[in-house]
Amino acid sequence: MLIELHKVSLLVVDVQERLVGAMSDAEGLLARSRWMLEVAQALALPTVFSEQYPQGLGSTVPALTALVPGAEVVDKRHFSCVAADCLPETLLAREQVLVMGIEAHVCVLQTVLGLLSLDKQVFVIEDLVDSRRPQDRQLALQRMRDAGAFVVSREMVLFECLADSRHPQFRALSKSHLLGEQP
């Protein structure tokens, strides 16, 4: 099954100021997240940021939300965005959901399982999920895969969304993101 631009939305789970620094690869995760959000903005992908208890964990890293002006930010207390019932119709109206964020084995996992229960086609961007402990991340990715989620890379997302080298954004995105400049 391919990711289709007109069917997909992007959910960024809990990449928050006080949480991201504890991840196993915080700097790399932020760099790769910036890359993906630039692509999302260029392709006009509907994007939603979730925040787990922002009063305690802070808001989403501002450098990320700045890349997608107008993206909706939702807050939650449940670990799962689905259980929290906080996802907007702009995200739920589409058949496919790309998921990235932290922590892979808690909020990302529970959200992905919830989206699958809603019969969504869920694509977890492997290089854009992290946990404090690498083994938790690996277990979560395997569990999500076993449950029916597709585990993909950022480049898979880009090329499947573009679908064709004649796409109006192909030249710009391939020049700036694929010729050695991606993190």
UniProtKB/TrEMBL annotation:
Pfam families: Isochorismatase (PF00857). Gene3D superfamilies: Isochorismatase-like (3.40.50.850). It comes from Pokkaliibacter plantistimulans. Residues 10-155 form the Isochorismatase-like domain. This is Isochorismatase.
